[in-house]
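Slide 14.
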Amino acid sequence: MSVLYDTTSPEALPALPRKGRGSVSNRPSSRFDAADRYDIDDGWSDHDREEWARERRPTILGIDTARHVITRNTSPDIGFDRSINPYKGCEHGCIYCFARPTHAYLDLSPGMDFETRIFRKPDAAARLREELSARNYKPAPLMLGINTDAYQPTEKSERLTRSLLEVMYEFRHPVNIVTKSALILRDLDILAPMARENLFKACLSITTLDRDLARVMEPRAATPSKRLDTIRGLHEAGIPVSVLAAPVIPGLACHELEAILKASAEAGAYRAGFTLVRLPHEVKDLFEEWLRTHVPDRADKVLNLIRQTRGGKLYTAEFGKRMTGTGVYADMIHKRFSLAVKRYGLDKPSRPMDFSRFRGGDPQMTLF
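Slide 15: predicted structure.
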């Protein structure tokens, strides 16, 4: 199987799903490049293409060095101004992931590269300790792993998220985590004590309850039932846990909205949120390619419904609208969500986190 760097090749082969991966191709390589990548059959290989597609593509780990680990933002769409992402790229392979285009800045594909070329920050805990020790640092809500999942499969061996949590608990710094992974239960020995001091809240993201759909749409994330079990485990450990029905995908999984909220409430979630599917930059093409590969009978319907919520486009980045969409169809989703939240009691009050416990500066000084 050869790779030809040619954006106009008439011989480009149709994409095939790769076992255990979300993206069905590794293109576009980068919107900053003039070339694109296509697989073509040049006749020299006797490798069966169907067998090639079934082969597992390994994950390659790289190192991401940074002088600072806390990232700041000024977005009016989110309720925090700082976050930490211990990993770039995400093995979960969710085809709709809004973070995929970040790999383009690394001259890598937002497609398969995003799922298989993972960059870790081995010195993240040390950098965090330095930043929290700064005399001028003031605590505020911090999200751990908001761009890519802090509990993706790589975390099982790398344990970067755990090391960051250890530092944050040492400094008594409040933190929130949104994840699709059951691996978060590994760290209950840290998270439960933090929750008791009102320093931690968790959120599980659920897109569908359909195991078969989840298997091809978010192939390395925990199964839907496992995520519900994780909500239950966090709740039983005394950790405030909410559910994020995200993303809501019109025409594909939007009919499950009420079922997701009901099941989450029964598992112990106390609050809920939702976001509409976002398809920025290269994600539009990758998502359409995935639709036409896995659900070709629904592809046009899904794309047309998404356009109805985005002013005729597949995506608009306007603040105040990019998370929720506009139009009649988007309004209907909003109303359904609001009614279901009230019906299942997912509108319980959220207690503010306690910033008075923060041990700024040198934490050892608190001993004297």
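Speaker note: The longest helix spans residues 328-343.
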